[in-house]
Design goal:
It is a single chain. This protein has about 300 residues and is mainly alpha-helical. It has two domains: about 140 residues, no CATH class; about 120 residues, no CATH class. The protein contains eleven helices and no strands.
């Protein structure tokens, strides 16, 4: 129970700050609605609708849903806010444009945003101006939601990959301990098992390190899990193939026999290292496949009428 206290305390503090920040944003929007209702009675139905959404934002038990209600309320407020507040609202929204994903960044490029800002500053009477600002806010809110969702899914995948790595290396230690207790000879065919496992560990660790540097998306998660396992299997195959190649002595590597007096073969520890390093060759293999696939796709785009 003691070990759970720091994590639960951190979660409590994070939730507390999120609640305080959301409460501050809701209170600020309510104040703006009160001011707007006093000077413009014609938008009272819209104000009541926004207040209804804010009430749901304060009573909803799930924090993420509360934020969704607030974002919906704020986007609705953009349609009816006074002209002198529209610039401030747009600048606040633009400051969060980094949350846009790649397709939306191409639509809402800096030139487009500058043009909207110029229209607001010059008090343009374009009927679509507020619609564009609201659409930008919606794109940012949805982009932030997708990023958080994909990041949480990736964190779960990283945890699973870490567990798999720990299990593989624990199994390697158990096998090495068993071989040591049973005094298995270094030239025994059974020694291929730890070499194969070191290849699995190297391939899985290599794939995990690559995966952590890449952004994952929801639709790629099932494929990412399969790729982890497939790369681990490829690491095992690579370890066995490299070890068999060394045993053929087509090319000699004297440094691998350092510290041994045997005229034939290599120290088993050197083969373990070779097996582990061989697992990392999976990234070279799959990078080459991706390059070939990319070139093939580019050629098909350039010559769409060419028969394959």
């Amino acid at each position: 129970m003691q070990s759970d206290k720091p994590a639960s305390m951190k979660q409590t503090l994070t939730s507390q700050y999120d609640e305080e920040y959301l409460g501050m944003k809701v209170a600020d929007l309510r104040q703006k609605l009160d001011s707007l209702g006093r000077v413009n009675a014609g938008v009272q139905p819209e104000i009541d609708e926004i207040r209804s959404s804010l009430n749901r934002a304060e009573t909803e038990p799930v924090s993420r849903v509360r934020w969704n209600f607030y974002q919906l309320s704020y986007r609705h407020y953009i349609r009816i806010c006074p002209p002198e507040e529209l610039l401030g609202a747009f600048l606040g929204i633009r400051s969060r444009a980094y949350r846009l994903d790649k397709p939306n960044k191409e639509i809402w490029n800096p030139q487009k945003l500058d043009l909207i800002e110029d229209h607001i500053v010059n008090q343009s009477q374009r009927s679509q101006l507020r619609v564009e600002v609201e659409a930008l806010a919606k794109a940012i809110d949805e982009g932030g939601f997708r990023f958080t969702r994909d990041n949480d899914l990736k964190s779960e995948l990283d945890r699973h990959a870490l567990i798999w790595n720990v299990l593989v290396f624990s199994f390697i230690l158990a096998i090495l301990g068993f071989f040591s207790i049973r005094h298995i000879d270094a030239q025994s065919p059974w020694e291929k098992i730890p070499i194969l496992l070191f290849g699995v560990g190297g391939g899985l660790l290599s794939a995990t390190l690559q995966q952590r540097r890449e952004r994952m998306f929801r639709h790629t998660m099932p494929t990412a899990r399969v790729q982890l396992l497939f790369r681990a299997v490829f690491g095992a195959i690579a370890a066995i193939m490299v070890t068999m190649f060394l045993e053929l002595r087509i090319i000699d590597f004297p440094f691998l026999r350092a510290g041994t007096t045997e005229a034939n073969g290599f120290p088993i520890s050197a083969l373990y290292i070779v097996g582990f390093v061989s697992g990392f060759t999976e990234r070279i293999f799959f990078a080459a496949i991706e390059r070939v696939s990319s070139v093939h796709s580019e050629n098909r785009v350039r010559d769409p009428g060419k028969k394959q």
